[in-house]
Structures are given as C-alpha cells and as structure tokens.
Model the fold of this input.
Amino acid sequence: MSVRVWLAGPEDVEAIVGLSVILFREDAGSRDSSVNLGWPEDEGWEYFAGLVAGEGSVCLLAESSGVVMGTWLAVCGRGRACGR
Done:
C-alpha cells in the first residue's frame, strides 16, 4: 500500500471537514454526550479554511488508493514561538 501525504490547500477543506465529521461521530459521539456532533458541518468549514490559509498552522492530508484517510493539524498558540 502506498500513501501520499501533502500540504493541504483551500481545495482540501471539504476532505478535512469530512474526516472531522467521522472523528466527531466516532470518538466524541461514543464518549462524550456534551460534544456538539454537528460542529464540523456548522463551523468546521470556516475554521479549517482559516487553518489551511493561516500563517501559524500546518495541515497535512494522507491518501491511499484514491481515498483521503487521514489529516494532521498543528496550530501555533499565541505567545509561543513557532516555525514552519
């Protein structure tokens, strides 16, 4: 199995939101009833688009056999040094 990993761009936000929907439903949905399971669809588009375009963040996606199967997000917090 080969895996392709790339730096996400604006065209990848839909895939990032889709993966977030799955994660929220699987992880939070089965462990924490107080989590808003609709957050990725309600607010995720704007949030992830900002991360993809942001200076203080990095988002990578992984694909295998034509299917996007993973994402990695890193955000530099305020007041902390962060390099790319």
The helical segments are 13-31, 39-53.
